[in-house]
Amino acid sequence: MTLPGRVGELADAYDRYFEERNRFLWQWIYSLFPSFTLSSVAEEHAAHVREQKTILTMYVTVLDDLIEHRGDRRTFEEACRLACDSVDTDPQRAAVDAETFAFVERLWTEFEDGLSDAPRREEFADIFAYDFNQTADAMEYSALVSDNPCMANLTGATQYDSHNMVMFPYADVDLMYSPAFDPADLGAVRNTLWDLQEMARIGNWLTTWEREVVEGDFSAGIVVAAIEEGVVSPSEVEATEDREPFVESIRSSGLENRFRRRWHRIYEDVQSRHRDAESVDLAALVAGMETVFEYHLATEGLK
Q1: In CA terms, which of 17, 31, 153, 252 is 20 to 30 Å from 103?
Q2: Are 58 and 30 in contact (CB under 8 A)?
Q3: Is 303 among the domain residues?
Q4: Which residues are within 8 A (CB) of 51 and not within 5 positions of it... i.e. 6 or more apart?
């Protein structure tokens, strides 16, 4: 998969300032977007929308790198201000150097400027801003759980952490480029997205939780369930540097299969549900989540 011009340039720049991810992640998500893009996106905008959502992914990923991998809450909070029109940023408050913060700012500016031609940008701007804030809150919640494993609970992981999948902001971008979309269908779209983002989150949990435990991140639903059910102790996990025994305990607990079954139950339920939307093909959107799940499973350990 070859990334298009401006996305490739941003990927090169990411490598200069961050080392947490490699180019594979951007190729992975860019390759996957056509599978779960709303059918209402006008054909003449499809390529641009795909780039826009890849750049948004890069910005969200950098925020996640800052708070999860680097524990840099100061820079995370300042970088989040970029997406809030009512609050001016002050790079001096960030913990990173000026060049690194300028790159984070460049990511947001590239995304925001890229929306200038969106036919319905203003109509969905407020909804996007709200949904993006939920994504930022999800990252902060995940960091809190990693710092305080004793607060871990599966309800919180499902309701908060699932927003880290960016499914609602992605759909908002699609809608900005959907001239024929009927606003009367918005409730049905968002109702479906609640299920789909949990499915996306489960696929991600299943294929990243082992790496995250080793890195000291205990927020994945599988790990949270293991803590809740006493498979592992939060105090023990937190206290030792060798976490392989805890990984093995979770592996042998059967929790992974439970989450796989949960994914299939949601998928079957949302497939069978009557979806009343005339201007967008929700059945195709749901079907695309099977591809998303397959991508997760096929690339375990690579992202």
Answers
A1: 31
A2: no
A3: no
A4: 4, 6, 7, 114
